[in-house]
Design brief:
This protein is an alpha/beta fold. The chain is 42% helix and 15% strand. Strands 4-10-9-8-7-5-6 form a 7-stranded mixed sheet, sandwiched between helices. Strands 1-2-3-13 form a 4-stranded mixed sheet. Helix 11 links the parallel strand 7 and strand 8. Helix 5 crosses helix 14, helix 6 packs across helix 13 and helix 10 runs parallel beside helix 11. It is globular, with a radius of gyration of 22 Å. The structure holds pyridoxal-5'-phosphate.
């Protein structure tokens, strides 16, 4: 790639703009891809080039990349009440509507909603509330939070501490002291020879129990998990995993935080990943598709047990001393509320029920591809694992820089997907049509073929 021309939009970006999860040195040399508009599941860069974004941006643009109806709702809300805070007993109608709607559709009985702007903040709030809950019931010693290796819960100090991503801890002085990580439950990648999925799940649950015992059950506050792990590579829980894990959590009175930031709102074929995998969490965080990603908003639902503890603390301390300026921002809440109406009108769950299997069968055909070791997914989420040797599940030598090669070839064929190490994660917008699924598979096939040819040339 050539260095961007002086005064180009790319040069101006390089001069002033720091990008997330980006190699800053490479960015200085190459500059950004500037996306200027979106239509349906496609986005267009500043040269007019079209890309099918089958990652829905960052697993979030459930209704695609532009939406007239949500634009009208946002404009109307800005005209009526463009902002007000929710501190010290103040409220707004959009926030009230949204809280009520979320509690109504929650996968298990939930009591109240705390709003924030991002998934990271929702998980931060959940972690704070796990501490607050145990303090309220007279067990302040229960303060450790257990996440999972390769789990991802956000970038703020606590949410990234709960995440099991060493590359995102390095040189930030993280994770914070009370955070621990149990095993990565990736059956395809981690199972032993002859080990069934159920036996693997038993081993994963035992590892969690052993960790709780080693730390001391009286010191463990909560466990946080995504129903399907996103940034870990679109990893499905192995059969019986959550039933076994939840039995362990109950045994040691450890709270369960379900991170539904990716899985919430139809992604797995039910409204919530918690329904698909029979989770019974105490707190549920959601964001992203909550507003179809058109406005930044997240929500943390808490059950009655947590709420009662918050109420008691509030009586004792004088206030629930937590909050952010934009919590339940009326414009974001109005857009989220309209998004939920759109989901109901399009019968979102039925739609994913119909088209999800078509996506999965289009992808299953890649199991025969020379590079593909595994294809696994559910609803509108899937992961494809690239291996050098199918029999041993051996990965390619990192020196070959497979992720960069794959990303380049996907882009060459006008397809945006998330490449995570040796896995390709797919999470298309939930409005994807059947012919677009076929086109996605066609582009993906070409990118895989080109990658196989490139690898053969370098071998
Ligand atoms: C499962 C999960 N939780 C939390 C987050 C963090 O959300 P945000 O980027 O909105 O802070 C993400 C982001 O991708 C996520 O995938």
């Amino acid at each position: 790639m050539n260095h961007p021309a002086p005064n180009s939009i790319q040069a101006r970006d390089i001069a002033h703009f720091i990008h997330s999860q980006t190699n800053l040195a490479r960015h200085e040399a190459e500059g950004p891809v500037v996306i200027t508009r979106g239509k349906g599941i496609y986005v267009y860069d500043d040269s007019g080039r079209e890309f099918m974004d089958a990652a829905a941006g960052l697993w979030c643009a459930s209704l695609g990349f532009a939406n007239e109806r949500l634009a009208k709702v946002a404009c109307e809300q800005i005209r009526t009440l463009g902002y007000y805070h929710t501190y010290r007993h103040h409220s707004n109608e959009a926030g009230i509507d949204l809280a009520e709607a979320l509690i109504r559709i929650a996968p298990v009985p939930m009591s109240k909603v705390v709003f924030q702007c991002t998934g990271s903040e929702a998980n931060d709030t959940a972690i704070k509330l796990a501490w607050y809950y145990h303090a309220a019931i007279g067990r302040p010693g229960k303060h450790k939070i257990i996440g999972r290796k390769m789990g991802y819960h956000g970038s703020t100090c606590a949410s990234i501490s709960a995440s099991g991503k060493p590359d995102m801890h390095a040189d930030f002085g993280l994770p914070f002291a009370p955070f621990r990580h149990t095993e990565f439950p990736h059956y395809y990648g981690m199972h032993e020879e002859g080990e069934s999925e159920e036996d693997f799940a038993t081993r994963m649950a035992s590892a969690l129990e052993n960790l709780i015992l080693a730390e001391g059950p009286d010191t463990v506050a909560a466990f946080i998990a995504e129903p399907v792990m996103g940034a870990g590579g679109a990893i499905l829980p192995p059969a019986t995993y959550f039933a076994k894990v939840q039995a362990v959590l109950q045994k040691y009175e450890v709270l369960f935080i379900a991170d539904e930031v990716i899985c919430g709102f139809g992604r797995t074929g039910r409204m919530w990943g918690s329904e698909t995998f029979e989770l019974r969490p105490d707190m549920i965080s959601c964001a992203k598709a909550l507003s179809a990603a058109i406005q930044p908003i997240s929500a943390l639902m808490v059950n009655e047990k947590i709420y009662q503890a918050m109420l008691a603390e509030s009586r004792k301390l004088g206030s629930f001393a937590h909050g952010t300026t934009y919590a339940a921002h009326p414009v974001a809440a109005a857009v989220a509320m309209e998004t939920l109406r759109i989901y109901a009108e399009m019968d979102l769950v039925a739609r994913v029920g119909r088209l999800g299997p078509k996506l999965q069968s289009a992808l299953a055909r890649f199991k025969d591809h020379a590079l593909v070791g595994d294809v696994a997914g559910i609803g509108m989420i899937a992961g494809i694992e690239i291996v050098a040797d199918k029999a041993t599940r051996r990965h390619f030598d990192p020196a070959l820089k497979l992720p960069a090669m794959l990303s380049r070839n996907l882009k060459k064929h006008g397809l945006i997907l998330r490449v995570i190490g040796d896995r390709i994660a797919l999470s298309p917008p939930l409005i994807i049509e059947e012919d677009e699924i076929a086109e996605l598979a066609r582009r993906l096939g070409k990118a895989l073929d080109d990658t196989a040819a490139e690898l053969a040339r370098t071998a």
